[in-house]
Amino acid sequence: MTTVLVTNESRAKEYIDEVFSQLKQKNSHQPEFLQAAEEILFSLAPVFAQHPEYIEHNILARIVEPDRIVSFRVAWQDDNNQVQVNRGYRVQFNNVIGPYKGGLRYHPTVNESIMKFLAFEQIFKNALTGQPIGGGKGGSDFNPKGKSDAEIMRFCQAFMTELYRHIGPDVDVPAGDIGVGAREVGFLWGQYKRIRGSYEAGVLTGKKPGYGGSLGRKEATGYGLIYFVAEMLREKNESFLNKTVVVSGSGNVAIYAIEKAQAYGAKVVACSDSAGYIYDSEGIDLAVVKEIKELKGDRIKTYLNYRPNAEYHEGCTGIWNIPCDIALPCATQNEINGDAARTLIANGTKFVAEGANMPSDLEAINEYLANDIYFGPGKAANAGGVAVSALEMAQNSGRNYWSFNKVDEKLQDIMKDIYTESKEAAEKYGTPGNLVVGSNIAGFVKVANGMVAEGVY
Ligand code: GLU
Fold first, then answer.
1. What pLDDT does 2 receive?
2. Tens digits of residue pLDDT in 37-77
3. Could you identify the atom of ligand 1 that is nearest to the CA of residue 133?
4. 34 and 105 co-located in one domain
5. Could you tell me which residues come within 8 angstroms of residue 116 by beta carbon, excluding any fewer than 6 positions away?
């Protein structure tokens, strides 16, 4: 029996090595995608050892190849009547569990590697939610910063004029991500509706409540993150009460993470934007951050105009030098490297959980795991946003609206379930307390079983 297991284990490792080395060869120019794939693939060894049928079905080599990638020209007219050209993308990675589902990102750094890493992560995140949604992602290298409302509208309309032929409520359901919020989703939705000539509300999520959107969607990623961390804290007989928290970012995820953490009695002392970070030793005044970011669309440094005793520092990485009990990276990918992780550890941080997608690089993750930081990886901890998107789809299909409390209660249950499933999978496969392994395995097994059931295609 032991010999069989050892054989299975070494066969599993060989298989993963083989798939990953081919993946590296084929995608050598896509570092972010390879990073996301490496993290997931190598945590799956115990699953392949126990399920040789996944190797027989060559699940791994199939799951790392997107169903399809659409790339398209987006030409639009700026306010000076100049014609601008951007590139649009939609990566439809896997639809075993449901229609492709995932946000759209507008940011100058967007390229195929970033789109693929995000879509790949989305497969497992969406599976973890327990909702019927597959994995996808899209976006553009369009930079919304400094653009007028009219320019944003024309860009969104031009983007949808191509995208509409690839999506649908039962096909692929985009939503927001960095640079795409309710305003952009509104413009995209209007254009889709005009072109299709029918009211297919479930084609996009993150719409405003009142015309297709769900109450609680705006808050869902941030609140969900805090519900998840509350479970992590409970595990260690701790709570948010009087804990010092650092949150990076000041967008939608960060704002509602701060709101819920404060409601649970935590003291949030810092947040940031892409230019720098603020430190307020008395605790962040969230009403001020909301006014700056949600109403004015201004830089976070203007916080000092309202709270002169606070500090502003240029650059984003310094935020991890601030001593805290709980660190919540909610800005963007690779914002915590090995050095930043070591600083957190030296400062006594005990919990890190990711509101952003892949904010910790592989070295940082290894540091957390080796140094007794209890770590909540993004695909589990930030799944609340897409989970409530699935609830929005359900409301759209049922042609009705649920109350905020109903949505929020469902979100709390979903986040608890994700935590429990990830924790139990980690235990079952021999790495108790490792939520990276646990969440990767828990998500993967659902998709792999679906792929086995569907047969080869
Ligand atoms: N962009 C979010 C994510 O990374 C939400 C996607 C959605 O609601 O479809 O999960």
1. 53
2. 999 999 999 999 999 999 999 999 999 999 999 999 999 99
3. 9
4. no
5. 27, 30, 32, 33, 66, 69, 91, 93, 137
Q: Are residues 226 and 371 in the same domain?
A: yes
**Is the CB of 102 inside a 6 Å radius of any atom of ligand 1?**
yes
Which residues span the domain enclosing 184?
68-200
Same domain, yes or no: 228 and 281: yes
Which among 104, 177, 382 is the best mutation to test ligand 1's pocket, defined by most ligand atoms within 8 Å of the CB? 177
Query: What is the number of structural domains in the chain?
Result: 3
Residue 359 lies in a domain: yes
8 vs 409, more confident: 409
- Whole-model pTM: value is 0.97
Q: Percent of the chain, pLDDT > 90? A: 97
Active-site residues: which are they? Answer: 137
Per-residue model confidence as pLDDT tens digits over 219-240:
999 999 999 999 999 999 999 9
Where is the domain boundary, 381, 405, 423?
381
Atom 9 of ligand 1: nearest residue by CA position: 102
317 shares its domain with 373: yes
CB-CB contact of 334 with 359 (8 Å): yes
Q: In which residue are the tokens 């003291």 written? A: 267
